[in-house]
Amino acid sequence: MKLIILNDYDQASEWAAKYIRNKILQFIPGPNKYFTLGLPTGSTPLGCYKKLIEYYKNGDLSFQYVKTFNMDEYVGLPRDHPESYHSFMWNNFFKHIDIKAENTHILDGNTADLEAECDSFEKKITAAGGIQLFVGGIGPDGHIAFNEPGSSLVSRTRVKTLAKDTIMANARFFDGDLSKVPTMALTVGVGTVMDAKEVMILITGAHKAFALYKAIEEGVNHMWTVSAFQQHPQTIFVCDEDATLELRVKTVKYFKGMMHVHNKLVESPPSEPKKN
Amino acid sequence: MPLLQAMEQACGDIQVTAIHAWFRHARGYFPGAQREKTLLAMSMRSCGQTPTDGGIHEPTEDLWVREGRILDPEKLFFDEQGYADKHVDCEGSIIAPGFIDVQINGGYGIDFSQASEDVSDGVSFVAKKILEHGVTSFCPTLVTSPPEVYHKVLPQVTVHDGGPHGAGVLGFHLEGPFISAEKKGAHPEKYLRTFKSGGLEHLMEVYGSLDDVAIVTLAPELPGSQSVVRELSQRGITVSLGHSAADLSQAEEAVQQGASFITHLFNAMLPFHHRDPGIVGLLTSDRIPAGRAVYYGMIADGIHTNPAALRIAHRAHPSGLVLVTDAITAMGLPPGRHTLGQQVIEIQGLHAYVAGTKTLSGSIATMDMCVRHFKQASGCSVQEALEAASLHPAQLLGISPKKGKLDYGSDADLVLLDEGLNVKATYISGEEVWRKGQ
């Protein structure tokens, strides 16, 4: 695991965005070689998305040959509802960049056969050659996507009933009215994310500190599903100071001491020498 | 079985979504092939601001247009996996719904009230010129005239859409002849009329036809007006009160019967009096039927109304304010003498008088001038100023949200403005019909 600790939310967002940018550029995607990216929703990745949009607008990054797979979507919420994850991705990311609609994949929570939708999503990931980099967040209860406490650590894409914690955390997007929050969702499984070549988890804010502690300083435990990534060969946790509040000083010092090495991963790519 | 029969049977088995995949496949293999119009979408990039119900859009928001209407790009993206075929860089301009002028008597030497053989050409000429002012739809207005003029002019112009040829015609505005002699303003007295018994029939005799009429201005104190107001309203014609000496209760009675507009507020009506506010009192009347609104035209040229009076009206009833030009023949022409209806008028600077008098004869301000002056005089926001020239007249005529708004599905009649609200380009049904400097 690489634990990347930045001073604040903005710096963490920028580091993560630069990392994603560099990964895509180094991959050199093309019409026969798409870069597959797993994407999250929620307030944590907003800063990262803004930065990625900035890099696109500056001409430093193109999403023409990038395929995206979102982690989850509510069940039963109309696709054009302002709080659906389709709306979130459109408004906060897709509409600002040059990604093609057919290269984006978000689970459809309004199909008649939800299980078939989940299976088909898994097949699409396989057909795309697997995920190069899966970006995710963490819930206050340590969940990744909607894999609530108790979810199998080898689970696949499926329908999940949301935990009370999650519904309460989401209520702020539904006018604070608990009754308006959807109770079920389609989500990629812990196993699905584990299949990715690389996993990057964004964690910012003091309210996530305990979950981060449980995820990286305690054992692998299905009550804190993010802990599963301790067993993934390529995991990066990107966080701000506040999210480290529950960690041991020793852990924080160790990883802060490595920042000069880790920062090489986000250096601006060398510009092409001008051809005559 | 026969091939055709087999094909027909098979059609029922093919899902519509399968065809979408075929389109994408075909587009990939035949990129030069003609795209169907339905697949053509245009995004207008880098818009400065777009007024919406919720306020002004983010500066980086794009406006999407397809088949002449505003398109929901999210639906395009997810439902059709589509994207823009064409991008237009708006260079940070403000995008507003095209302006709608519901009172304009002519311009550039054309007088709509002249009974000539080529009225249609005249209307078309003005329609093309006013694109430069951001006007995308208008109501050609006829002042008080003898029946011969109405019988000759009305049949020559029909309601029609705008386009590169000019702004769309929403219907005539017939200002008179059923108005008050006392408040005739610049209208010729000898052609004024009252309602003889049989109200609407008499009106039909005078006008000849109401087929392409959008608005009728009349004085409600004229005996017999009630049934006329009611019957016109029932036909979908907007009834406006103006050139009238009516008191408030007469005006309110007319509103109850269906009247919904006031022609150039303050001008050609009794002045506001604190014990009888007259027609002006409609702005704050509590006898307007539920679910209905009264709109009022304002000539915001800095001449017809003192800015303080403009502010009083605006503050009393901001959502009812409709900017009109009441532009006359001389609009767009140099100073001098010109004809309006059956009279001669004289231009002095920005003023237009009945020749030989100090009676105002209509204005020569353009709609964009009125928008700028209104904003400056009232201190209102950019959004309010633009709504007074687009949303409110559309609501008055009952054509909102198709016109006057930039909702998904609204007609893509647009005006691009700079920060100072000067017109940079005008679009009708998504097509650029005028651009500054060309």
Automatic annotation (TrEMBL), chain A:
Subcellular location: Cytoplasm
Any single Gene Ontology cellular-component annotation: cytoplasm
MF-aspect GO terms: glucosamine-6-phosphate deaminase activity; identical protein binding; isomerase activity
Record-listed E.C. numbers: 3.5.99.6
Positions of the Glucosamine/galactosamine-6-phosphate isomerase domain: 10-234
UniProt keyword list: Carbohydrate metabolism, Cytoplasm, Hydrolase, Isomerase, Phosphoprotein
Transmembrane regions listed in the UniProt entry: none
Superkingdom classification of source: Eukaryota
Reaction catalysed by this enzyme: alpha-D-glucosamine 6-phosphate + H2O = beta-D-fructose 6-phosphate + NH4(+)
GO terms, biological process: carbohydrate metabolic process; glucosamine catabolic process; N-acetylglucosamine catabolic process; N-acetylneuraminate catabolic process
Top class in the EC scheme: hydrolase
Keyword Cytoplasm carried by entry: yes
HAMAP family, alphabetized: GlcN6P_deamin
Similarity comment: Belongs to the glucosamine/galactosamine-6-phosphate isomerase family.
Quaternary context: Homohexamer.
Function of the protein: Catalyzes the reversible conversion of alpha-D-glucosamine 6-phosphate (GlcN-6P) into beta-D-fructose 6-phosphate (Fru-6P) and ammonium ion, a regulatory reaction step in de novo uridine diphosphate-N-acetyl-alpha-D-glucosamine (UDP-GlcNAc) biosynthesis via hexosamine pathway. Deamination is coupled to aldo-keto isomerization mediating the metabolic flux from UDP-GlcNAc toward Fru-6P. At high ammonium level can drive amination and isomerization of Fru-6P toward hexosamines and UDP-GlcNAc synthesis.
Protein's name according to its UniProt entry: Glucosamine-6-phosphate isomerase
Organism: Pundamilia nyererei
UniProtKB/TrEMBL annotation, chain B:
EC number: 3.5.1.25
Keyword entries, A-Z: Carbohydrate metabolism, Hydrolase, Metal-binding
Binding annotation for substrate: A186, N267, A268, R275, H304, L360, S361, G362
Gene Ontology molecular function, alphabetical: metal ion binding; N-acetylglucosamine-6-phosphate deacetylase activity
Keyword Metal-binding in annotation: yes
Cofactor binding summary note: Binds 1 divalent metal cation per subunit.
Source domain of life: Eukaryota
Signal peptide: none
GO biological process terms, semicolon-separated: N-acetylglucosamine catabolic process; N-acetylneuraminate catabolic process; negative regulation of UDP-N-acetylglucosamine biosynthetic process
Needed cofactors: a divalent metal cation
Active-site residues from the entry: D326 (proton donor/acceptor)
Short name of any one Pfam family annotated for the protein: Amidohydro_1
Catalytically driven reaction(s): N-acetyl-D-glucosamine 6-phosphate + H2O = D-glucosamine 6-phosphate + acetate
Family: Belongs to the metallo-dependent hydrolases superfamily. NagA family.
PANTHER family assigned: N-ACETYLGLUCOSAMINE-6-PHOSPHATE DEACETYLASE
Name assigned to this protein: N-acetylglucosamine-6-phosphate deacetylase
Native source organism of the sequence: Pundamilia nyererei
Gene: amdhd2
